[in-house]
């Protein structure tokens, strides 16, 4: 029984990094709807509305009047997973899980206020990271799947200064709030004990704040060509909450709930973007984004109630790799009212094949995006965006528990559809 619970604890830590359908790892890119329509190509350089504050603080200097943008992206994944179940212990379980990633809603809001012709300030609220998965309660691999939800929100004030006609610099601070809830069931391991397959093996809830910073620069070569370079620091968020011990192995009392905490290391991000207005109608733009996932060395939860293990409720080595995202897009301005855009992006996974588990069947992704802007007048415009994300089908092998005589083969993958609508207003 202790080995069963030990594996359930490991699964709980893994679940913070569960299967994602919108960005590699558990990164969220949906900081603007105009950006969604071009696969976020050129985001640190275009500055076509106030949402640029989430990508490059230096670009605030391109605005000579108060600017507001607010939008909502809807992420509709189609993700599935299946395992090769061992018939000896599969009684009462299902080995095929459909639609394991629920529909999610990602808001963003931004405002930019020029102080004079050189200085500007701004504020953005958006999300860089998040996930949501929900496996059936009777899933065969319940000990390494279950349900998971991680929500983060970045509250980011910025300031920018125009050095001269070509160069601007900017900086800001981030206050990141994170909230997580994780549940794990016994699954097929119930057939190795007296438990039911739907019994809760472990539960973790917690929330907390972390603080980071960002800097950026904008080089405006001329009125038709500009480049942006930005950096967002690593942010360490400490989640304070409750840990429920399903069997009592860690706390000494089955079903008991104790205080605990977990430090989540959100990676640094570096982005380079370019924008080129080829003529009055056509523009091209591109981006390369580096995410320092190697900061994710381990997940470790501690609590004084886990006295049976030196206050360590669970600990799991991760050692993810750094990854890149490349995007290319184009914009066609038809007239004073309508503009259309399209983009493609390649999103690398930070999880190598040998480290892939059912809780982290992460894979490379291809983005195909379309978008449009309707400009009603000189003050008001509305953006709409759509993206199809093509995720690879991946496989792996993982043991449910040390008591399991052989490993479990699995396959997981899926696609996602993202829809967005955004309003922009110049005061």
Question: Which descriptors would you attach to this protein?
Answer:
elongated; mainly beta; 14-stranded antiparallel β-barrel; Porin; 427 residues
Write the layout of secondary structure elements.
Elements (H helix, E strand, L loop, with lengths): L1 H13 L18 H4 L30 E17 L12 E2 L6 E11 L4 E8 L3 E5 L12 E16 L4 E19 L14 E23 L2 E8 L2 E11 L10 E11 L2 E9 L4 E10 L6 E5 L9 E6 L5 E11 L4 E10 L17 E11 L4 E12 L2 E5 L9 E19 L1
Antiparallel strand pairs: 1-2, 1-3, 1-21, 3-4, 4-6, 5-6, 6-7, 7-8, 8-9, 8-10, 9-12, 10-11, 11-14, 12-13, 13-16, 14-15, 16-17, 17-18, 18-19, 19-21, 20-21
Any overview of this molecule?
The protein is mainly beta and 427 residues long. It has a single domain, classed as Outer membrane protein transport protein (OMPP1/FadL/TodX) (Porin, Beta Barrel). Helix content is 4%, strand content 54%. It has helices at 2-14, 33-36, and strands at residues 67-83, 96-97, 104-114, 119-126, 130-134, 147-162, 167-185, 200-222, 225-232, 235-245, 256-266, 269-277, 282-291, 298-302, 312-317, 323-333, 338-347, 365-375, 380-391, 394-398, 408-426. Strands 1-3-4-6-7-8-9-12-13-16-17-18-19-21 form a 14-stranded antiparallel beta barrel. A hairpin with a 4-residue loop joins strand 12 (269-277) and strand 13. It is elongated, with a radius of gyration of 23 Å. Residues 1-22 have low confidence and may be disordered.
């Amino acid at each position: 029984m202790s080995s069963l619970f030990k594996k359930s604890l490991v699964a709980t830590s893994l679940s913070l990094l569960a299967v994602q359908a919108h960005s590699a790892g558990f990164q969220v890119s949906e900081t603007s709807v105009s950006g969604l329509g071009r696969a976020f190509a050129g985001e640190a350089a275009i500055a076509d509305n106030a949402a640029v504050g989430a990508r490059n603080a230096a670009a605030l200097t391109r605005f000579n009047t108060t600017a507001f943008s607010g939008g909502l992206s809807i992420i509709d994944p189609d993700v599935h997973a299946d395992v090769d179940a061992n018939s000896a212990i599969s009684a009462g379980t299902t080995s095929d899980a459909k639609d394991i990633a629920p529909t999610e809603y990602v808001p963003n809001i931004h405002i930019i206020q020029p102080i004079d012709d050189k200085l500007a300030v701004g504020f953005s609220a958006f999300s860089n990271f998040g996930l949501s998965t929900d496996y059936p309660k009777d899933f065969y691999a319940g000990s390494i799947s279950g349900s998971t939800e991680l929500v983060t929100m970045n509250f980011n004030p910025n300031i920018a200064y125009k050095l001269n006609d070509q160069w601007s610099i900017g900086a800001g601070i981030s206050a990141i709030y994170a909230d997580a809830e994780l549940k794990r069931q016994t699954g097929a391991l119930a057939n190795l004990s007296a438990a039911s397959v739907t019994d809760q093996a472990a539960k973790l809830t917690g929330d907390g704040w972390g603080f980071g910073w960002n800097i950026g620069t904008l080089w405006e070569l001329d009125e038709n060509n500009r480049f942006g370079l930005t950096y967002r620091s690593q942010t360490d968020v400490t989640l304070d909450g409750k840990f429920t011990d399903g069997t009592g192995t860690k706390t000494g009392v089955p079903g008991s709930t104790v205080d605990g905490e977990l430090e989540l290391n959100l990676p640094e991000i570096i982005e380079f973007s370019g924008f080129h207005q080829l003529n009055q109608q056509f523009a091209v733009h591109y981006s390369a984004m580096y995410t320092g996932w190697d900061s994710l060395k381990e997940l470790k939860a501690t609590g004084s109630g886990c006295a049976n293990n030196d206050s360590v409720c669970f600990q799991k080595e991760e050692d993810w790799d750094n990854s890149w995202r490349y995007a290319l897009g184009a914009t066609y301005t038809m007239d004073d009212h309508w503009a259309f855009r399209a983009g493609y992006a390649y999103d690398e996974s930070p999880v190598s094949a040998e480290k892939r588990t059912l809780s982290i069947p992460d894979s490379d992704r291809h983005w195909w995006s379309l978008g449009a802007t309707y400009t009603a007048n000189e003050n008001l415009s509305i953006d709409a965006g759509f993206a199809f994300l093509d995720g690879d089908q991946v496989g792996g092998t993982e043991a449910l528990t040390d008591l399991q005589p052989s490993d479990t083969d699995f396959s997981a993958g899926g696609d996602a559809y993202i829809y967005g609508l955004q309003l922009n207003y110049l005061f």
